[in-house]
Amino acid sequence: MKAINLFYSEPDPDRWIKFDRYPRRWIRRILRGKPKPGGVMMVALELIKGLELLNIPYRFNDYKYAKQHPEELIGVIGKPHLIFERRFKNPILFGAGVFSHPIECPDLFQKYPNVKKILVPGEWMKKMCEPYYGTQVRSWAVGIDSNLWKPTFEKPKEYDFLIYDKVRWNYESVNDELINPIYKILKEKNLSYHIIKYGNYIPSQLRDVIEMSKAVIFLCEHETQGIAYQQILSTDTPIFAWDRGGFWQDPYYYPEKVKFQPVSSVPYWDNRCGLKFRDINQFNELFPQFLDQLQNHNFEPRQYILENLTLKICAQKYIDTYQSLY
User: Fold this and answer.
1) Residues 6+ apart with CB under 8 A from 56
2) DSSP character for 94?
3) What pLDDT digit, counting tens, does each position of 254-299 carry?
4) For the stretch 209-223, what's the b/e string if a residue is b when 16 or more beta carbons lie within 10 angstroms of its beta carbon?
5) 144: which DSSP letter?
6) How far apart are CA 324 and CA 110, in angstroms?
7) Angle at 216 between CA 238 and CA 288, to 5 degrees
8) pTM of the prediction?
9) Quick count: other Cβ atoms within 10 Å of Cβ 19?
């Protein structure tokens, strides 16, 4: 197979004067150390892993080659600054980083007609984009490294639950109405738990605490894909997930600019993964059922990942879309 062309870079605009991004980048590296990969960077890195497992050749950020071969398709994985700044002549498969919402560039296909398709991380986001981009938008999830995120039996299960806290907005209200009541219920039932907060850990720390936990309570308003909860599922750890539904909550857009519903915190899911609850009342209602199924080993979350979201499966889906545009 002919090598595919992939491009990714982090947005890093000049802040005060032209080209000040470069010394700022150097200073950040000195002060903070090597940057941790964010969600979109993980998409690029894990896609490359999948391509390597499939023995599919690729070029990464080879701008010279793309310029010399403007007829060849390229995949721009990250945010749109690459398209805006580089002014590629090549036909483009764009995503799955893209925009938070199409209102940021509703006329993308008119301004940049060489963009042929947009990939977004999941189905509810695809539906949110379709009124603007129609059939030119598709959903695609990056794969989970199931060899890295796998069950282990090296550590005893010290905790009944890991509480994964990724609540981003209106935290005080959610804490009062949901999180603290959950803590209270767990204490009343003499169930031990450990808390990990999004953004305050590295992947190895998450793996360590999952190894010591029988199950996970996942708290997040909504996810476009949700790589972290899928990594948890890949370790064969069932999840009791807060899936509130309702409107997309990003305060930059909602409610003045955008009102879209329904959304999901676990957009890739079936009943092997665990159970979902909308609010604290449904948590109370379904929690005994979750504990019963957990004790009886009725959940098979890893099997769901192996059938749907491995590195190979998802890389092949990317290649299928890429090749369809030739």
Assistant:
1) 1, 4, 315, 319
2) E
3) 999 999 999 999 999 999 999 999 999 999 999 999 999 999 999 9
4) bbbebbbbbbbbbbb
5) B
6) 21
7) 75
8) 0.90
9) 8
